[in-house]
Amino acid sequence: MKAKSGDFVLPGDILGVSEEFLPADWTCDDNGNIKALVIGTVDLDDKNKRISIIPQTDSPAELKKGMDIVGQIMEVRGQRALVKIKGIKDNPRGLVVSFVGGIHVSQAQKGYLAKLTDAFHIGDIVEAKITKTVGIDSIDLNTSYKEHGVVKAMCTRCRHYMKQSGKNEVTCPNCGNKEKRKISINYAV
Ligand SMILES: [Zn+2]
In the predicted model, what is the mean pLDDT of residues 107-135? Predict the structure, then answer.
């Protein structure tokens, strides 16, 4: 396939070959083929030999306020935990582009939370609700409901996944370490 400007494309569609064109916005080079990363229309810049996609919406491709997502904690710093969003809950289709969301300390659980590290640590798998999307790099998440929060906790000492041992506590079966979390009722073990 060789795409023309205005063609409607889906993620994974081949738009051209990288010998002829450069991937630009929302496209990538996959083994010599330029592929679409999002749903949208092709914008072919013949002069500069660049292929871009104009996304169908200007908010994150498939992520919308109110959706439940599954993600992994990348960083916990100060007032905000960063989450790499891996997918939409109960939707087997993965996201084509990965997005990063943030959980503010006030949105982590009901009631007061002294520090975010009492709720999350790097490597934890979490389920959360999207409360706001602004552009593609600002997604606010909330885990205060009982069905949201950590579903798999990673031991900060030995990187093993931990077992739930209390309402807000997990224990590592490998090293015996106990840590606090904001645990979802859907905790995996
Ligand atoms: Zn451990």
Answer: 92
